[in-house]
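I am still learning, so can you show me any protein sequence you like together with the matching structure tokens, please?
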Amino acid sequence: MAISIRTWPTRLVARPWLLAFVPINAATAGFGVVLPLLILIPLHGSWADVALAATLFNSAVILSSVVWGHLADRHPGRRAFLVLNYGGYAALYLGLSHVGSLPLLYGLYTVVGLIAPAGANAANLLILEKFSETERATAFASYQEMTMIGSVAGLLVGYFWTVANDALLALLYVLAALAAVSAVAIWFGIREAHRSLTTAHVAKHPESLASRLRVSASLRISIPFFPRRPRLGPAPLARFRLWVREELHHELPLVMGAMFLFNLGSNLFNISYTPFLYAAGLGVAAIFLVNFSNNFAQLVLYPLSGRLASRFGPDGLVRWSTYVRSLGYLATAGFTFVVLGRTGAFSANLIAFGALGGAIAIYTTASSLILFRGLAHRDAGGLLGVNSSLGGAAAVLGAVLSGVLSVFGSYRLVFLVAAGALLVSVPIWTAAGVAYRRRRHGTETPAVATGPPASVPTRAPEPAASAKPH
């Protein structure tokens, strides 16, 4: 099955209103660096405190994702969800600028996690509803570009701000203002679409699915996507065992298992990395620059990832990107074996974290293509619900494991465990590719198997446009 994802937009901005997503991503990218530093410096917290905050945040994201997905299906007002999300960020950033204790920070950061999925659902549905079938690939590519440009800009704002002064808390005022700009721009600059789709439609478009699976350059996790609420009943384990038996001859369980290990290792590493940089003696401005290298590499390589996947195939690309990312983790663990000065530690981490950013950009596209082809002609909504559950579990488990390993005070151990999780996933990706080829050749006739690749599966019909004025 030949499936491609357009990651290079025909136009950088498919519609002018997509520019409204630049300030909010600048705000969240800066906040992703400020939050752990806020715990470590003004509040005199520890690595364990950063891990606890991440655990509360990730748990809130998981629980609220189901609710926001359900609300998005019942209420078609996309602007209201986006304004609530971005305006909420602005208010919470202002609140955090006056925080004086760790318990209060935990509470406010948990609220940030509760509202985070609202915008992710609404943004994807807004693009699906506002663009025609032929324009969507370009639209989502433009949306991703705006996301990455905003993230890079936000880290540069943080760098120049902290170079000019040491007022870390005051930087939150700037981030709150950026979030408010996006909320105002969306409310006054975007009209609701004629048609109203549901979250299940995201699974029918590879670009929108890739957008939801993409690890946030600012929050460092991929916000889970539940197009269908998990069904609860008296025998959930029995249903799960039945599902496993039905899927034994399909590659999807292997794909989900590999993605779980990747997400686990990535969350474990990302949560511990900023405390590690601070412990290594890097200043606040230098930490912003190290994070900038990661996001800049994503900005450069993500537009090329679709072309690379088409040329080399997603199966090989996902293995190599995972392997490169694991080498980056091992290199970071290696930094703990030698005594590096501030300049040496900065240079080494700048290069290593930049390589990790490039690897995640390529991995996202390749893994999205593999998952999308496995969902063809299946219950995509239910299967994505299972995959989201596993992704959420990986996010929470990574945060918890980071806190547990912080007891031993060894960043080296954390980075080695994270690298091990990724290396274990590589042969699982290989097995998934073998299972896919066996399934494909076993279900297709020789004439089809030796002919040209099949096209993307027909997408479900969408509801007709309403009579409301545009």
Observations:
- The domain at 16-227+242-449 is CATH 1.20.1250.20 (Growth Hormone; Chain: A;).
- Residues 342-375 form the longest helix (34 residues).
- The two ends are 38 Å apart (CA to CA).
- The chain has 15 helices and no strands.
